[in-house]
Structure formats: structure tokens, C-alpha cells
Amino acid sequence: MSVISAGTLNNMTGTAQMYDPVGNAVMAPMPITGDFDDSAGTVIIDPWMFFGMHVMSEIELLPPGTHTRPGAGTVTVAPGQVGGFIQTDWAASTDIPAFIVWDVTTVGSASRYEPVDSDGDGIPGHAMISGPFPGFSIAYELDVGGSIPDVDVDLNVPGGLTQECSETGGTSVNLTATATLKGGATLGSISWAVDGADAGTGSSITPFLSLGEHTVEVTAMTTNGVTDTESTTVNIRDTQQPSLDIEFIDTSTGMAITEIDSPRVSYVEVRLNSDDVCDEDPAVSGVAKPVTAITGGEVIRIQGNIQDTDMPTTAIEVTANATDDSGNKEMDQAILNINN
Predict the structure, then answer these.
(1) What is the pTM (predicted TM-score) of this model?
(2) CA distances from 16 to 115, 280, 288 (A)
């Protein structure tokens, strides 16, 4: 029925967790202690606190097979697993029935009982069908006969899960990992993967991530081969507009000008200068049109050549647009006055 030798009474430590019907943890994991009595086929869990009131649980151990208990329904324990029928007292409620099924890992004389999803709802534990918490699941993780060498890894993205593009095509993202060792475990390695490809080792890396979403995964491994993995998604976006500047260049001198005040200036180059943090070559286009100064009361003949009105160009107006690869746009306008 269990991996503990028959007829033994073992001290037990572990954690207790409650999940609501949609799988949210309703509290931080609570440390627990108790006795694992294989000869009696029972587990006695010492009182622990839940919403300010004591919880006391006694568990009947169940071998592989299908089991039915009043108020709890039916559970199936697979070969190699250990099941439990829990009866819990909390506040004014007594003998609240629930099932639990564990996967068991043994290292030396110690065993880890890890709660599994035994009713197929995607939540560790087995949903209660009666008592004050219908639909809730109670999950007891137990270490029996000593502590199992173990590791928990936490993945951190100091800059946040959504970051702005900071160089051409993406940005370099700082990723850190913290490994918590248990049961005398010794850390062997921390390894990283980005989008399924190896990305480095160690407690921190700074990979370059291109625009878009990326799956980041970190795995910590102890020297005895126990692993823990955590993953997250990091999104690199570009919301910054490109810069845009219009220049008029006197081709005879190569100098920038803002007006023409000499008849010697015949040719002017229009330069559309654009720069973008994330796109090294934004698309730029522009339109130039002449501007004619008039005085009030003038009549302009639009067609024909009788009594044509002289319309000298007094300025050149240029309008330009720049668009980067992410679709961010910028517009600029400049006027070159002609005074000669």
C-alpha cells in the first residue's frame, strides 16, 4: 500500500493547500506535521490553522483500485500510487469527507507523497462533493521518514514581462533565477531555454529577444538529479515613433539652408532624415509643392493664356512621412522661403 515498511510509525512533515473550484490557491501553503502509521493504514495530521480556525485531519490509506466512501464519492488509485480518504474537522463541521491520491518518490529511507489531480479537473487533489466546501480540493504534500532532497526554482524578469524595444530588432532582457534547496539537497545546475533552444546556464542571463512573444524556461537540478522548472512569456514591443527631420541643402556649398536669398542658388537638395530605435531603415516618403504669395484682390486665371497672371514661387513646402517596421508613423513639414 505504501513504500514504508509494514508495521512502522513514521514522523511526517509537509504542507497543506486548499484550492477553490476553479483552481485558485486560497492561501499560502501551510506547514504541517503528523504521524504516518503504515501498520494501521492511517495518517494523523496535527492541527493547523485555516481562516483562523483549527483543522484536524485523519486519513485512511487506500491501495491501488477503485474506492467509494460516504459523502466523498468514488476515486481510482492507479498502480504505484497511494490513495487516501480524508475526514476533517474544521470549526463546527466534523468529519468533512474528501479523497486524495499521491504519486510517491522514494530516496533512501524517505518518501515524498505528491498530490495529483485524481478527478480530472486539472486541480491537485479531489473536489469535495459535500460539507462546507463543495468543489474545493485539499492537497496534502507529505515527506515521510525524513526530508527528500528537493529544489524549487523561481524565475524573475526584473524589467517586466512586457518590455520596449531598445535596439535594432528587439532588446536584451535580464533574466534571473533563485533556487531554494530542501532536505539537504545540493544545487547541481541552472539551465535556460528561450523558445525551446538552449540559452545559457547560471543564476542569470541576458539574452537578446526580438520583437514579439518569447517563452522563457529555467530548470534547476540538484546533484542527485531532482529538477524543478518554471516558465513564463516575455513580450517585446515597439510603440515608439521614428524621428523625422527635413533639411534643405544648397548643392553648390553643401550647406543646410532655410531660405533662398540669392539668385546664385539654383539647385537645392531635399533630405528626409529618419531614425528609429528598433528599425534601422524606416520607410520615408515626401511631397514638395511650390507656394506663391498673393495680395488681396488679385484675380487668378486658372486656364488659358490670355491675361495670364504671373505666379512666382515664393516658397517650397515639403511634407514627409516616416514609418517603421511596427507601423509607427511620424510626419514633418518644412518650408524653404525664396526671397530673390
Answers:
(1) 0.62
(2) 10, 54, 73
